[in-house]
Design a protein that fits this description.
2 copies of one chain form a homodimer. By secondary structure, chain A is α+β, with helices and mostly antiparallel strands. Chain A contains 10 helices and 12 strands. Chain A starts with 9 loop residues before the first strand and ends in an 8-residue tail after the last strand.
Chain lengths: 323, 323
């Protein structure tokens, strides 16, 4: 940690933290990638005192009790490590729909700790910020915290969480043509529920298949080989248990592969799905196929078509310093 | 397959196929790397007819029944795909000790199919040669064939077997400073025995840890980050079951890490162990520590200190064409 800066009695910043796709098919709990232009916008204000307030100005409903908001444990972890109490007011201006499976909780906690680090002149490294934001993930996952959404939301790009003890965050290169279509169907699957369907033990044979794919995915990223990435983005371990939350999952995959997507998988714990594409025109088309698919089941969906971005959490220029 | 060349009534070649380290710690059944200057030397002679002979001129004892020799199914698979019967005489001139855990069977079958492909003017790709050589591995593993030794023995470097259906062989870059010390203690562990101790199911939690390490290993190779490779070369799935075959395994690892090795693991199914080092001087020192360790247990060992080589099977120049 760098020296603590004395902070002005009132300072404010407005930040954005992007939505993210965790797991990326085979990389359950260890990988995530960053979307472009969809995410949370927070204003964070600090001053003297020792109080935390969270104000919701977004269209999403958030828990009234701040103890149930992921921002709270993340901010508390930051302040505890910083060692100086302060008044903090977080205003949630824009929020990804909770339960979307594109890292909605991670975007909030990432944005909050990123904002504090900016306001206090960067006392912590990005890796430490990931650790603080993970406290938010702990709250919603009901146990072991994961960093496969907060990692990319803070750092951007594709992020590998090699291990957690100690946390080992590795940023992987993102091939230029790497983009995807994400559909967030209007159904609710909680992260906790999605965790509970998983078996405690898996066949060694399937585990080997999965880590062969993980190796192929990382090699494909390193070599910019989008076809290899596509071949490797297969989840033989977790998907069989989770795909039942998503109406017509196998049928949808067949449809999007048919129009040219390289792979389709569940995003994070679902219910969002994402399809890897090697160009944006195709991704747009795939998005339409996804939209039409869910409508067949009388389910509306939000479609995001996005390049995979190298940028993570960032300051929004329009009111960087307010007196 | 290219057009079949008509071959002279008698042609002969002498080839070398290197020893290999399969698994590389975390990459059980999916990765292997190629050693330098240790391996099998075979002479292969073809002519008209339909007979296979294997002559052993090496110091190792080989089965009298050629049906029990790994060379046989590999050669037969090659000839079946080639579609023209021929007389084949394989002379084993030099052989890695069987049961060494550095791909002794793979070196033989790789050398044999490589030699035939050279003699017949390359009818097959390297990937097809890997498939033929895998038939030899099938014989000794008593079931599912693996390519984590034959892959690197034929192609050289670090080889990833992403999947087997269809076979997906990916060559990974080898960092310049990447070298290792291997100790082959004079104890016998069969591949079959080493397979039989493995559980059919493993905890999902451990599988995730393993594929985090696999991802770190591949990322480390891609970025030439030897420290990341070292941190990632940890096997939490298979090693706990196999290390008991190797006297004082944990103690030995502590010793070699203390002198500066980056990681130590079982090579393939054992009983050989290998330690990753970032320079040859250190690898020499680690080799001595290994030798002394096994002597404490009254076990002699062969020590190999080697860079990881980018060269796989190759023709030895000294009698390329004999009349």
């Amino acid at each position: 940690m760098k020296n603590k800066s004395t902070f002005a009695p009132m300072r404010k910043i407005r930040v954005f933290a992007p939505a993210t796709v965790a797991n990326m098919g085979c990389g359950f709990d260890i990988m995530g990638m960053t979307l472009d232009a969809v995410g949370d916008v927070l204003s964070v204000e600090i001053g003297e005192g020792d109080d935390l307030k969270i104000i919701n100005k977004s269209k999403q409903s958030l828990p009234d009790d701040i103890e149930q908001n992921v921002i709270t444990p993340a901010v508390r972890a930051f302040v505890a490590a910083y060692g100086v109490p302060m008044d903090i007011t977080v205003t949630v201006e824009h929020k990804i729909a909770p339960g979307s499976g594109i890292g909605s909780s991670a975007a909030s906690s990432s944005a909050a700790v990123y904002a504090l680090n900016e306001l206090l002149d960067h006392p912590f490294t990005d890796e430490r910020l990931v650790e603080f934001a993970m406290e938010g993930e702990k709250l919603i996952s009901g146990g072991t915290p994961h960093a496969d959404n907060v990692g990319p939301s803070i750092l951007g790009g594709v992020v590998l969480l090699r291990g957690y003890d100690p946390l080992d965050v590795v940023r992987l290169p993102v091939p230029g043509r790497f983009c995807c279509a994400v559909a967030h169907p209007d159904i609710m699957v909680s992260t906790r529920e999605a965790r509970e369907v998983l078996p405690k033990e898996i066949p060694l044979r399937l585990a080997v298949k999965q880590w062969g794919n993980v190796a192929g995915l990382v090699a494909g990223l390193a070599e910019g080989d989008v076809a290899l990435i596509g071949r490797s983005m297969k989840d033989v371990v977790v998907e069989p248990y989770r795909k039942h939350f998503i109406p017509g999952f196998d049928e949808l995959r067949n449809k999007v592969l048919e129009v040219g997507a390289l792979a389709m998988n569940i995003s994070g714990a679902g219910p969002s799905v994402f399809a890897l594409c090697d160009n944006m025109t195709l991704a747009d088309k795939v998005g339409e196929v996804m939209k039409a698919h869910f409508l067949q089941y009388n389910i509306d969906s939000r479609i995001y078509v996005s390049k995979i971005s190298n940028r993570g959490a960032r300051t929004l220029a329009d009111y960087n310093f307010e007196g």
